[in-house]
Structure formats: structure tokens, C-alpha cells
Amino acid sequence: MPSTITLPENAPALKAQSKNLDFYYGAFKALKGVTMPIYENRVTALIGPSGCGKSTYLRCFNRMHDLYPGHRYDGKIELYPDDVDILDHGVDPIEVRMRISMVFQKPNPFPKSIFENVAYGLRVRGEKSESYLEDKVETALKSAAIWNEVKDRMNESATNLSGGQQQRLCIARSLATDPEIILFDEPTSALDPIATGSIEELIGELKSQVTILIVTHNMQQAARVSDYVAYMYLGEMVEYGVTNDIFMKPKRQETEDYITGRFG
Amino acid sequence: MSRNTERTEELRAIIKSHKRWDIIFGLVGIAAIALAILTLLALFTEMVIDGFPRLSSGFFTNFPSRRAGEAGILSAWVGSFFVMIVTALFAIPVGIASAIYLEEYARKNWFTDVIEINISNLAGVPSIVYGLLALGLFVYTFGFGQSILSAGLTLALLILPIVIVTTREALRAIPQTVREGAYACGATKWQVVSDHLVPYGMPGILTGVIIGLSRAIGETAPIITIGALTFIAFLPPVPFTGDPAAGMFDWLFSPFTVMPIQIFNWTSRPDPAFHANAAAASLVLVFLTLGMNGLAIWLRYRLRKNIKW
Questions:
Q1: Among A27, A260, B218, B256, which residue carries the largest CB count within 10 Å?
Q2: What is the pTM of this model?
Q3: Size of interface A-B (CB pairs under 8 A)
Q4: Which B positions 193-212 lie with beta carbon below 8 A of chain A?
Q5: In terms of residue numbers, what domain contains A180?
Q6: Nearest-CA distance B191 → chain A (Å)
Q7: Is pLDDT of A1 > 50?
Q8: A2: in domain
């Protein structure tokens, strides 16, 4: 397996890079030496069969594993332009989560009002000015393409929204704090095809303002939304490249088998 | 064709013989429920018949008396009220804080396992044991005396496991994805607890607190152990009144009695007129606990309407 990868020519600026990343759940080694670039304002998709470590990899980027005992990181994830290693023990996971936000597999709005859901990230940062909060909430809801549906019901409970609306609300929540990267963990797996379509469209629009890393079990989705794809298997990064290249002419047999449906 | 009909007949016979057990168990179930409900109903009816005629405004505003017709429950309900205040003030914050610590902060290791097992066991300790502990600790060692404070703290210890266990259950019922969502926004542990877990767990927490208090209000054994009076014709001092003026917290150290002890006292008298008093006071106590449980159900229903996952 490649421990280094050749960067594509004319590549855009790097936003982050994992270097030889190992991850352990207790004694189980879930990630094995994953090295991979994340390009700024691009969508990078992680594909692979269930249990291949793609979600585990994604959750390293906001140190979500720190919430649970028995985790261990080895290696680095460097965040640019300031070159900070976000896995370093000296770096507070809360600081990382304030820079890199996340959208989850199942929509998880708080049982609070629509407004408070989107404002929450700013509130934990100590923002008190209501007019500033209102501005930011409106901007985020517009970016998440849900403003028109909710602008007259900001004080209603977010849990009354439909599944697709809830997921777009969660995207607005993750956008409101102007993150540098948004992590999407199979964001459409709990949604119907129409809601899925609108989320995919939204991801395409968002990449102009934020770098996106998305885990998906759906290869068509990876092909539709991403600029770069990484195929993972058994905790290793098997192949990484420009989306078209991976889907049209994969270099490795394993990748081709998975993409063509002969495996996985 | 005929083979098929034969087979269907056979199946029908089997189903019919199996279904007999449905009917038998249904009847057994009805009998069991009837036994339970009818016994309760009989007890309750007798209590109402004996006690209801004694319920008048005087019954609530009179001190106990040697003459059954003039005796009332003033000192008992006032005592119960103040003891409950002390119990609530102590059990609610300590119980909720312990539960939050165990559920959200403590690392899972053998030490927290031991604490967990002990808390569940504490809920099953006979209440008289709490009374003995309190007699040694609160009454003598701390020198609180045979007071409202000692009683309140004793009952608080008694219901602490209930409050802790129900609070932990309420916290555990909050989906992990909601916690992760809050942490992903950059929240600290305390922000997650105070902005999310406590508000979302509140219906369950309140239910636990009220169920705990309604258990405490009926407890007799530990209160007798620490030495509540059985005949008392004065109320705890109101702060800044009397001569010399009572201090702000003097009521905490006042002798007292509570409802169940008053009932116990009246039932042990030979004069049947006092038994009517006991029935009337029991009626008040039963309605108090029913009312508290009803409040718990209503609160849970009201608050849960706004919380869905």
C-alpha cells in the first residue's frame, strides 16, 4: 500500500493533510498509516465498504474520538496555513471543533427552536449580541438553502421539520461559525432521494466558501459531488486521486473491483 | 384436494387447542388484577367512610388534643411541609450533581462500578437503617438534635438513590448523537450539560424528584428513630418573631412531628374516636402522595411534548 501519494498536477492550495495516521480503538488498529491531502475549497470523498475506517478517519478531524475512552492517535493531521497538528496533545479538541465543524449521518437537531439550533455554535463562543446572531443565523440558513422554508417559524421547535429540512438545518448550524472545513458523515443515508438530491446540490454550492470532506457509502454520490476520492479498505487508504480518474481508470485492481460492484 | 382439506382441518384443531391457553391466561390475569384493585379499593373505601366525616377546616388548623373531636393535624402537616423543604433542598442538588458526574464526567473504571452498584443497593436498604445512621450522625455527632433539620437530612439520604438513579436514566435516554452534535459545535463538557443534557433530561429528573419526595412524605420508621415527638402543640418558630426573637434558621432546630407519626399515634389509642382521626389524616396523606404523583405525570407529559429526537 502506498505510504506516500503523488499530488495531482496544478493542484489547488492544501487545506489539511494527514500524515501516516494510525488510529486505535483499544487494541484494535482501525486506521493504518493514512496519508492524504485535503484541498482547499474542494470536495474530497471517502468511499469504501462498511467498517473500512472511513468514518473513523473523518472523526479524527474534529477529535470526536476524544469523547470516548480507549482511543489513540498516531501520526499527524496538519491544518494549513498555520501548520498546526490538530492531533497534538497540546491542542485542545474544542479549539479544533471550533475550526472544523461536522454534519452527522442522522440529522441531530437540538430539541430547541430553529433559531437557537443555528445560533448555538456562536453562543458557545460567547456571542451575546442578538442582532449579530440574527444576521449570522440568516446568512447560514440562506447558505444551507432552507431560509425560505423556515424564516417565518424561527421560534418553532427544530424537531418538527422533515428529515431533509433537519439535515439542512444541521448544515446551517455547522456553517454559522464560519468553519474552515466541514465534515459530512454519510449525510444523506437517512434521507429520501429528493432530500438527498437537495443536499448534494448544496454541497456543490458550499465548496466555494468552505473545504469539504465527505464520507459516503454511495459511489454515485461520490462521483456526483466530489473533486477527489479516496478508496479505503480495512483501515488503509488504497487509492486516492481526482474523482474522474478514480472512477474511469483506477490504477489498482481492488479499487476497480469495488467501483464496478464486484466487491463490497 | 382432499389431502389439502384434511391438512387444514388438522391445523385448525392444533390452533384451537393452543388458543385454549390464551383464554386460560386471560382469565388468570383478570383474577390477579381484580384481587389487587379490589383490595386497594376496599382499603380506600373504608378509609373514606371512617375518615371523611372528620375532614373540616378545624381538622387542619387544630393542634392534637386529648379530646378526639377537637384534635387536628396542624403540627403534623406543618412539620411534614418543613421536613420536605429540607429534604428537597438537600436531595435535589446533591442527587442531580452526583448523577451528572457519574454519567458524564467520571471515567468508567472499577471504582465507578463499585459506586454504581452501591447506589443501586442503597435504594433497597430498609428505611429504619437510615434512621439509625441519622440518629448517630445527625442527632448526636453533628449535634443537630431531634429536629426538622435531622429529619429532613435523613429523608434526603433515603431518597438520594432514587433521585440519582432516575436522573441517570433521564440522561442516558438522551441520544448520543445529540451530545456529539453539541460537542461538534465546540461546546465544553459543562456547556453540553447545562445547555442540553439538563434541559432535555428535566422531565425525567423532575419525575424522579417528585416520586422520591412522595416516598419521603410517607416514611415513618426513620423519623421515629431520630426521635420525632408524637404529641406536639406548637409550631416551629417563624423567623424574627417571638420573644426573644427567633433567628432566621431556628425553625430548622425545632422539635416536630410529621403526618405518618400522627396517624400512627392515633391508631394506637384505645378510643375508637381517634381511629376516625387516623383515617381522616391517612386520607389527607394519600391524596397528598396521589397529588404529587399526578403532578409528576403531568409535568413529564407537558415537558416531553417539546422534546423529540
A1: B256
A2: 0.84
A3: 67
A4: 195-196, 200
A5: 14-259
A6: 7
A7: no
A8: no
